[in-house]
Amino acid sequence: MTDKPRQRKTSATERFEETIAAGPGKYVLKLYITGMTPRSQEALRNLEKVCREYLGDNYELEVIDIYQQPTLAKGDQIIAVPTLVKKLPLPLRRMIGDLSREDPIILGLDLKPKSPPPPQTQSKKRAEK
């Protein structure tokens, strides 16, 4: 018999307690990567930039290298990397693959894009001439 460590499943109570501990509106994110490949580094860089700009200090980010912690990837059913999992706030979301652009990350995290300046009306344009 092999003594394989069993991954413990979390109960609904434990998940609820994690939600309460995170605080209202706090983002809990997990980024699954494969080592320090250029693609993994770019995904991490872009995600951290979006989090700093849009969330400030209101997020927790756990980076998981599936080469070093394969059981965690199996437990969260990760089939491709990079994968970003948004645990909180609900609903749970997964973004798989290319995280090299900010727009899909912003959309996937349900963040409001920074609003562009309002378009000038025709009367304002005429007044400026």
Question: Can you describe this structure?
Answer:
- The chain has helices at residues 12-22, 38-55, 70-75, 102-108, 122-128, and strands spanning 27-33, 59-65, 83-88, 93-96.
- It is built from five helices and four strands, in the order αβαβαββαα.
- Helices cover 38% and strands 19% of the residues.
- Strands 2-1-3-4 form a four-stranded mixed β-sheet.
- The chain has 129 residues and is an alpha+beta fold.
- It has a single domain, classed as Glutaredoxin (3-Layer(aba) Sandwich), CATH 3.40.30.10.
- The relative contact order is 0.17.
- Strand 1, helix 2 and strand 2 form a beta-alpha-beta unit.
- The mean pLDDT is 81.
Strand order of the largest sheet: 2-1-3-4
How can the largest sheet be summarized? 4 strands, mixed
Which segments are poorly predicted (pLDDT under 50) over 5 or more consecutive residues? none
Mean pLDDT: 81
CATH fold-level name: Glutaredoxin
The string of secondary-structure elements, in order, is HEHEHEEHH
What is the number of strand segments? 4
What would you say about this model in short?
Helix content is 38%, strand content 19%.
Provide keyphrases for this structure:
4-stranded mixed β-sheet; 129 residues; alpha+beta; Glutaredoxin
Write the layout of secondary structure elements.
Layout (H helix, E strand, L loop, with lengths): L11 H11 L4 E7 L4 H18 L3 E7 L4 H6 L7 E6 L4 E4 L5 H7 L13 H7 L1
